[in-house]
Design brief:
By secondary structure, the protein is an all-beta fold. It has one helix and 51 strands.
């Protein structure tokens, strides 16, 4: 990026200094470190500094920092407190979010003890424009589509003007210039994305900014968005051809380091190279660089590169590989070289691969935000002391359809089009959307009954909770069955159709008239129950699995009323069985038996008993061993 030259000063109080900036363009999303330079502008002691960006027509700094306002004739945006730099002439400022347009940078120096305010300003303005991520980062010299995606809406025109330029994007669409500016055409793919066709005349290995314009009129069409980094192309065949490797994984978390692997045809890595690796937001340097720069970082781990086979190497990701401010993802070229000394022979082995990072994703937030305590610390009302995500509501029917809100997360992307997926127990949520950087919402789909883990996927990868049945925050799928028909006369055997979820994972067995061969605690059953059964088992089953489903005779007994025989699962969400209203169940924990006699008139519930009860600690084993009472599970024994 080039520095913005100071042309003339502006009328300000004494000792005012005209500043130059490290770039003439800043991202509308903010987050760019902008270096400011001016002779004597930043004394190392005796002063404090405040920054403002002033926009509108003929923006002026005035004699003191104005109150921030976006509705004023000359809008003002606060840039915060500035600290002095390494010397009296240089400092830096992190740009705030700015509406698109031209802005003057104003620095107000208050001299300690005097109250005097000195105003330092840029002679001209910097242009705030949406900075986006181009995809792919690299291509082939024969050309191809490049998609530029930026935060927020930036274009409404169907036909987009495109430039590939070795310098900062011109503010207006420009004519081609040999070797430095190449015209291209593109189309709007959404309000915040355009696709531009890279020309086949780009110089191999050279980095080009990708610039999108509101039209194709030279000198008139305004810059709508530009890439953060540069695009480069390499020959796929012929002289200088580089094979495109496969990178695994292709994405990760910002600033977390780790390793990736690059795979290529056998023989690509012959075992004779000393290897060097660089991760760069811009085009790969032609040869290995021996020190990191502001946008290109060398792998310094030991080993930086490990050859696995002649077709595969592992490459260390520098911890400096981080996501850009305001970007849902940030992509880097992975540049692999023959050597690591920076000599002319340390050239690229393969074409650059693309590695993308996103803000660190976590589903195990161990900070207790209400008490400012760590996991296991003090608790209070509505405090998730274990630091796990909070899922509300905490349960829902196995058929799905429950809208849940999940909080206490980190790294949830909020930008339009950002990758965001979630599942409960492996069943994907639908209509997933971010509520904030720490919360999301979605709708459950069908899943077998039980406590389940949460998985969230962003561009940083997938993270999964380690819930148990007693973990605060765990979500529970409950059997909420529906029965058709829902009435029959006493003494008949009625075939019923039951819908729910998770049926194919159960092994069903009939209860026998003698109890012989029956193992009710390890098999599944469909039974008719009443309120007495639920009153006993609604809490007892939570801790004891199915131990109380068929209580011991003489104890506090509330056995099922009858059974539904010959259970036939049709699918995971449907089964049929024959409800026997001519025989009743006699409860016994190890061998319940069947006794002849009509089921009395009344209203009951059809209940599906899960298998594998007891006190097991698995997510499916306890606390979800029977279908819950629901309006759809009601069954009436009556003559009409």
């Amino acid at each position: 990026m080039t520095a913005a030259a100071a042309v003339v000063g502006i009328a300000t109080p004494a000792w005012a200094v005209t500043l130059t900036t490290s770039t003439t363009q800043v991202p509308t999303a903010g987050g760019l470190t902008l270096t400011l330079t001016g002779t004597g502008a930043f004394p190392l002691a005796g002063s404090t500094f405040v920054g403002r960006f002033v926009g509108g027509t003929n923006p002026a700094c005035g004699t003191g920092p104005a109150a921030p306002s976006l509705t004023a004739t000359n809008p003002v945006v606060n840039a915060g407190t500035i600290t002095a730099g390494l010397d009296a002439n240089t400092s830096s400022i992190v740009t705030p979010a700015l509406p698109a347009g031209a802005w003057r940078v104003c620095i107000y120096e208050t001299v300690t003890g005097t109250g005097a305010v000195n105003v330092h300003s840029t002679a001209g303005t910097v242009l705030a424009v949406p900075f986006g991520q181009q995809s792919p980062l690299t291509g082939v010299t024969t050309g191809g589509p490049v998609t530029l995606t930026a935060p927020g809406a930036f274009t409404t025109t169907t036909t987009v003007g495109g430039l590939f330029t070795t310098a900062v994007c011109p503010e207006r669409y420009a004519a081609a210039a040999a070797g430095t500016v190449f015209q291209a055409t593109g189309t709007r793919t959404s309000s915040n994305a355009v696709t531009i066709t890279a020309p086949a005349t780009l110089t191999a290995g050279t980095g080009y900014y990708v610039c999108a314009y509101s039209g194709t009129t030279v000198g008139t069409s305004a810059l709508a968005a530009r890439s953060w980094g540069t695009y480069s192309a390499y020959p796929a065949t012929g002289t200088g051809a580089l094979v495109a490797p496969t990178i695994t994984p292709p994405n990760g978390s910002s600033g977390q380091g780790g390793y990736v692997t690059l795979s290529a045809p056998t023989g690509t890595f012959p075992g004779t190279y000393t290897y060097g690796a660089v991760f760069s937001r811009f085009a790969c340097p032609a040869t290995y660089i021996t020190a990191s720069t502001g946008d290109a970082f060398i792998s310094t781990a030991n080993p930086a590169v490990q050859e696995i086979t002649t077709a595969k190497v592992a490459v260390a990701v520098p911890t400096e590989v981080t996501s850009g401010a305001g970007d849902p993802t940030t992509s880097y070229n992975v540049c692999l070289y023959r050597g690591n000394t920076g000599v002319a022979g340390d050239t690229l082995i393969v074409a650059p691969a693309t590695y993308t990072v996103a803000p660190v994703l976590s589903v195990a937030n161990v900070t207790n935000t209400l008490n400012n305590a760590t996991s296991g610390g003090a608790t209070g009302p509505n405090v998730n002391a274990l630091g796990h995500p909070s899922i509300q509501p905490a349960s829902g029917p196995a058929q799905g359809g429950t809208t849940v809100t999940i909080e206490n997360l980190t790294g949830i992307p909020t930008a339009e089009g950002a990758l965001l997926q979630a599942s409960l127990g492996g069943s994907n949520l639908t209509n997933v959307r971010a509520l904030s950087s720490t919360s999301l919402t979605g709708v459950t789909t069908a899943h077998g009954a039980g406590f389940v883990n949460l998985s969230v996927t962003t561009a940083a990868g997938t993270r999964t909770t380690l819930f148990t049945t007693t973990t605060a925050g765990a979500f529970r799928y409950t059997y909420g069955v529906n029965v058709t028909p829902n009435t029959a006369a006493p003494g008949v055997v009625q075939t019923v159709d039951i819908t729910g979820a998770g049926f194919t994972g159960l092994t069903f067995e009939d209860l026998t008239t003698t109890g012989a061969g029956t193992t009710p605690l390890t098999t599944a059953h469909v039974v008719l129950t009443d309120n007495n059964w639920y009153a006993l088992n609604n809490t007892a089953l939570t801790g004891a699995g199915l131990a109380n489903a068929f209580p011991v005779l003489g104890a506090t007994a509330a056995p099922p009323i009858a059974q539904c025989r010959n259970v036939l699962p049709i699918s995971d969400t449907e089964l049929i069985c024959n409800l026997d209203l001519a025989n009743t169940v006699v409860g016994h924990a190890t061998a319940p038996t069947i006794t002849a006699g009509n089921v009395p008139y009344g209203t009951y519930q059809i209940t599906v008993l899960n298998q594998g009860g007891g006190t097991g600690s698995g997510l499916q084993a306890s606390a979800s061993n029977y279908s819950v009472v629901s309006s759809g599970s009601t069954f009436t024994v009556a003559d009409f």
